[in-house]
């Protein structure tokens, strides 16, 4: 029935990354909100799904099993019961329910949506057999005659997402193409297919095709808000901030119903609020990125830009306080403002070098946890925020409790290991990393990499190498490019210490091939080439790092290359590099300091050199976060120049900074 098909559709999409809010909107519209038009079996299926979503998995499994035995031929009940049993860990009973359903309706007559729901449950087991079963079921769903254009299109999208999840990019692309063909009579489903394909091409660095597919998805269904958010994120990644804003403005026009229906709480209103919350979360994140990157010239402009971002997050959380992503994105913004990054510096406010005052981030997470008590991701973020704020003991206690509650979550074990390592408990850290390496039943590369790095730090090179080799065998679909690049870079450091020049260079090359945007790889590679090879080799690596290494500390590459040029008496080249670096990263206090020191060292006329250095410091002090070494150098130069008035003004700033126990680590940007 139409109601049965609509109810089971929900379970299919969440696992396979189809926009749930839009799907539920369409499915409920097809089913209707009036319970009198819905069969009792469908109502029972809804109740089972509600129990599962509420975390009452055992109760849902009991209800589902009883209902499925009473009505084995009902598609909605069979799907809901199977999902409940799988989530409760009773895989055998879940499969038995579906076998009975297949026998009841006849072989070859199982509905397309039911097959997809079964595949979702199988995939959720995280086992090799489960994945194989899921793939077979999805293939059956794409070939069955028991489904309309919408259902078949959705099945192709689900199969494509399954293939992509397992690293089979070419097969995923073919599935999305088939989904578009199958969905010619179902524009909403076809829009999801185009959207999914566009995201694949964006990830695979095919921007032209990705943009065409995003445009197609909007043409097919302009009310599908996820199209605008994903497309805007893509444009932002390409540096097109104005285009990203315009797309979000277009999407916001379809969220007005959420504002108009604020006082009601029916399913239509909840869906509208959910979509509005998702859009404003994305908008707040993008405005935050713009604020941190482009508002360095004026403190007032920066405050205005940050306020705009916060306003977007406030709207997102007001629309849907259960939107965990909104709270997390907002907390990340507050962390970046407090701590600083390559674009926006913060001020260290504790006597501990790795601590900053991030009270606003903690306030955001506290509000998020009040709305979502015990939510794992928010609890994890709160513990990490406490660590950043200097309360390592409480952070460790919270992470220990989380690891007991979520023993299969690799992220929790990684966070616990990192915290223990920073506290000096290396054995405890290694144990946590190794526990997280296979906690979910699958290899987790960040945990394996962290365990190897900890063993390397402890001098156990043999064990570290074993772990690096183990990490290299992790299937590619279980890790990201950035994770693989970090693994190879740290492995290169091990081989560098062991003196293996050829192996070290191969590992650095492999790391940059995986993720050429990682500045840390280019920096460490260039420094190593300078020591073992030649200045020319180091210069080439550093130049490539400036060109490609836009993430993870690019300002250090500018500093390294400028210093190299200064050491070889190429003063004009060094000055130009410092200028370019400070323009690209105006919040990097250490880069301004190094430029000022360079101006002092290269001038033949001491007075002229001092004036040039002061000019650099004045500009840096107006853009970078407060930095004691920079202010101390400024004070000494003003006193040396005999300008007591300026010297007193600088001294007042320095005293105020010291009284608040604020400082930035020497040689590092505040982060």
Descriptive labels:
671 residues, 0% strand, 35 helices
Task: Describe what this molecule looks like in 3D.
With 671 residues, the protein is mainly α. The protein has 35 helices and no strands. It has helices at residues 2-15, 20-31, 40-53, 57-70, 75-87, 91-105, 112-123, 128-143, 149-165, 169-182, 187-203, 207-220, 225-237, 241-252, 256-260, 267-294, 299-319, 324-339, 359-371, 376-388, 392-405, 410-422, 426-437, 445-457, 461-472, 481-498, 501-514, 519-532, 535-548, 554-567, 571-584, 589-602, 606-623, 628-641, 644-659. Helix 4 runs antiparallel to helix 5 (75-87) and helix 24 runs parallel beside helix 26. Mean pLDDT is 83; it is low at 1-38, 341-354 and 661-671.
Q: Compute the gyration radius: what is it?
A: 28 Å
Overall 3D form: elongated
Q: Biggest sheet: strands, sense, closure?
A: none
Mean pLDDT: 83
Question: Span between N and C termini?
Answer: 57 Å
Question: In a nutshell, what does this entry contain?
Answer:
76% of the residues lie in helices and 0% in strands.
Secondary-structure map:
Elements: H1 2-15, H2 20-31, H3 40-53, H4 57-70, H5 75-87, H6 91-105, H7 112-123, H8 128-143, H9 149-165, H10 169-182, H11 187-203, H12 207-220, H13 225-237, H14 241-252, H15 256-260, H16 267-294, H17 299-319, H18 324-339, H19 359-371, H20 376-388, H21 392-405, H22 410-422, H23 426-437, H24 445-457, H25 461-472, H26 481-498, H27 501-514, H28 519-532, H29 535-548, H30 554-567, H31 571-584, H32 589-602, H33 606-623, H34 628-641, H35 644-659
Helix pairs in contact: 1-2, 1-3, 1-5, 1-7, 2-16, 3-4, 3-5, 4-5, 5-6, 5-7, 7-8, 8-9, 9-10, 9-11, 10-11, 11-12, 11-13, 12-13, 13-14, 13-16, 14-16, 16-17, 16-18, 17-18, 18-19, 18-20, 19-20, 20-21, 21-22, 22-23, 22-24, 23-24, 24-25, 24-26, 25-26, 26-27, 26-28, 27-28, 28-29, 28-30, ...
């Amino acid at each position: 029935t139409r109601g049965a098909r609509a109810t089971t559709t929900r379970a299919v999409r969440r696992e396979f990354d189809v926009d749930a809010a839009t799907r539920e909107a369409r499915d409920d519209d097809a089913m209707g909100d009036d319970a009198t038009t819905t069969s009792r079996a469908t109502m029972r299926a809804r109740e089972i799904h509600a129990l599962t979503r509420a975390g009452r998995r055992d109760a849902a499994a009991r209800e589902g099993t009883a209902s499925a035995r009473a009505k084995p031929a009902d598609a909605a009940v069979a799907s809901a019961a199977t999902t409940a049993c799988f989530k409760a860990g009773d895989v055998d009973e879940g499969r038995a329910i579906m076998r009975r359903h297949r026998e009841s309706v006849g072989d070859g007559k199982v509905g397309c949506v039911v097959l997809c729901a079964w595949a979702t449950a199988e995939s959720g087991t995280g086992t090799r057999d489960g994945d194989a079963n899921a793939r077979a079921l999805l293939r059956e769903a794409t070939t069955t005659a028991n489904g309309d254009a919408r259902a078949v299109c959705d099945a192709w999208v689900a199969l494509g997402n399954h293939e992509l999840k397992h690293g089979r990019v070419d097969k995923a692309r073919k599935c999305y193409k088939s989904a578009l063909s199958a969905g010619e009579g179902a524009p909403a489903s076809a829009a999801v297919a185009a959207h999914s394909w566009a995201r694949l091409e964006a990830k695979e660095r095919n921007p032209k095709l990705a943009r065409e597919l995003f445009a197609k998805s909007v043409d097919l269904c302009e009310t599908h808000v996820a199209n605008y958010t994903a497309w805007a994120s893509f444009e932002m990644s390409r540096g097109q901030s104005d285009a990203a804003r315009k797309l979000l403005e277009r999407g916001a026009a379809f969220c007005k119903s959420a504002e108009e229906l604020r006082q009601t709480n029916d399913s239509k209103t909840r869906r509208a609020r959910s979509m509005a919350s998702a859009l404003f979360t994305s908008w707040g994140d993008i405005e935050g990125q713009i604020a941190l990157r482009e508002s360095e010239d004026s403190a007032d402009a920066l405050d205005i830009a940050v306020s705009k971002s916060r306003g977007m997050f406030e709207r997102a959380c007001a629309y849907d306080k259960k939107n965990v992503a909104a709270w997390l994105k907002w907390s990340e913004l507050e962390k970046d403002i407090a701590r600083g990054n390559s674009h926006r510096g913060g001020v260290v406010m504790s006597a501990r070098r790795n601590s900053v005052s991030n009270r606003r981030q903690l306030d955001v997470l506290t509000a998020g946890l009040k709305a979502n008590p015990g939510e794992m991701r928010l609890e994890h973020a709160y513990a990490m925020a406490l660590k950043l704020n200097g309360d390592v003991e409480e952070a460790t206690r919270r992470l220990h409790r989380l690891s007991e509650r979520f023993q299969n979550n690799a992220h929790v074990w990684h966070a616990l290991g990192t915290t223990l390592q920073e506290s000096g408990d290396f054995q405890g850290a290694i144990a946590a990393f190794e526990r997280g390496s296979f906690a979910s039943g699958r290899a987790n590369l960040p945990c394996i990499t962290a365990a190897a790095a900890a063993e390397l730090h402890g001098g156990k090179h043999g064990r570290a190498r074993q772990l690096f080799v183990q990490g290299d065998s992790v299937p590619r679909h279980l890790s990201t490019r950035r994770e693989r690049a970090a693994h190879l870079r740290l492995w290169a450091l091990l081989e560098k210490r062991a003196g293996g020049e050829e192996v070290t260079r191969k590992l650095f090359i492999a790391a940059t091939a995986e993720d050429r945007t990682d500045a840390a790889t280019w920096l460490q590679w260039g420094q190593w080439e300078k020591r073992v090879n030649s200045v020319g080799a180091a210069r080439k690596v550093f130049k490539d790092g400036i060109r490609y290494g836009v993430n993870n500390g690019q300002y250090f590459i500018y500093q390294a290359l400028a210093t190299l040029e200064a050491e070889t008496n190429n003063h004009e080249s060094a000055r130009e590099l410092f200028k370019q670096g400070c323009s690209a990263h105006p919040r990097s206090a250490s880069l301004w300091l190094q430029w000022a020191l360079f101006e002092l060292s290269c001038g033949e006329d001491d007075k002229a050199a001092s004036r040039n250095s002061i000019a650099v410091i004045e500009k840096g002090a107006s853009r970078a976060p407060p930095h004691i070494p920079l202010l101390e150098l400024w004070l000494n130069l003003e006193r040396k120049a005999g300008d007591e008035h300026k010297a007193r003004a600088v001294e007042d700033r320095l005293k105020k900074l010291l009284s608040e126990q604020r400082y930035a680590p020497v040689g590092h940007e505040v982060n």
